[in-house]
Design brief:
Layout (H helix, E strand, L loop, with lengths): L1 E4 L7 H8 L35 H10 L5 H18 L3 E4 L3 E5 L22 E6 L9 E3 L9 E3 L5 E5 L6 E2 L9 E10 L23 E3 L2
Antiparallel strand pairs: 1-7, 2-9, 2-10, 3-9, 4-7, 4-9, 5-6, 5-8
Length: about 220
């Protein structure tokens, strides 16, 4: 588990995500108020594993970001090439489009504590988790220190930092957010090219195959 600083000016993820959220009714300010995302749009009951990717915020993000020529994707690919490869130490296979999260007050960002391998992910995957708002206390990821230990602690990660952790094999998840502010983040998985094997399995939420060209991409 490792927390790393990055240059927010080189990778303005927050600014781009905020600009997409202008599509949400009554969104306050695209530059400063992502933490107030819960004051806009629909109100949600506590999300579960079947609904934690189905809010209006997720739809707006994916409709705008999940395109090869999107501003977000351009920055994301730059981040992969310049930062992720350096941390992994060799060529990688990476998640084609990141997974978006909005952890609203009095709610969950992910529906259940889990290991990613519970949902068909490969055991050699490495998780990169990048909040674009400060993530702390009950609005951040909680993770065990070793597999099976269940000594869950909050991993505080602030805007301008990202977390690398073994999400495939360590149980992790969210608490009910009692901070009063929304945490906005995205995460993605990478595999060392030397360790990658197409499994034939699919993602639970979207039915993407864990293969290059579908869920995963090679470096260009």
């Amino acid at each position: 588990m490792k927390i790393i600083d990055y240059n927010k000016k080189d990778y303005p993820f927050r600014k781009v995500i905020a600009s997409y959220m202008k599509d949400i009714p009554s969104f306050i300010d695209v530059e400063t108020d992502l933490e107030k995302l819960h004051l806009t749009g629909k109100k949600y009951n506590v999300l579960d594993v079947d609904s934690d990717q189905s809010t209006s915020f997720h739809k707006v993000f994916y409709d705008n970001a999940n395109k090869e020529d999107s501003k977000f994707n351009s920055i994301y690919k730059k981040f992969i090439h310049n930062e992720v490869v350096k941390e992994m130490g060799e060529d990688i296979i990476y998640q084609r489009y990141p997974t978006f999260r909005a952890h609203l007050p009095d709610n969950l960002g992910v529906g259940a504590f889990h290991k990613d391998r519970d949902y068909n992910h490969g055991v050699t995957e490495v998780n990169f988790w990048l909040p674009v708002t400060d993530a702390y206390d009950t609005n951040t990821v909680w993770c065990e220190s070793k597999e099976g230990k269940e000594d869950f602690q909050p991993i505080n990660v602030y805007h301008g930092q990202y977390l690398i952790f073994n999400g495939a094999n360590l149980t992790h998840g969210n608490k009910i957010n009692r901070t009063g502010v929304t945490r906005v983040s995205f995460d993605f998985r990478v595999v060392k090219k030397s360790e990658f094997k197409a499994s034939g399995k699919k993602t639970v939420s979207q039915g993407k195959k864990f293969e290059i060209g579908d869920y995963f991409m090679e470096l260009e």
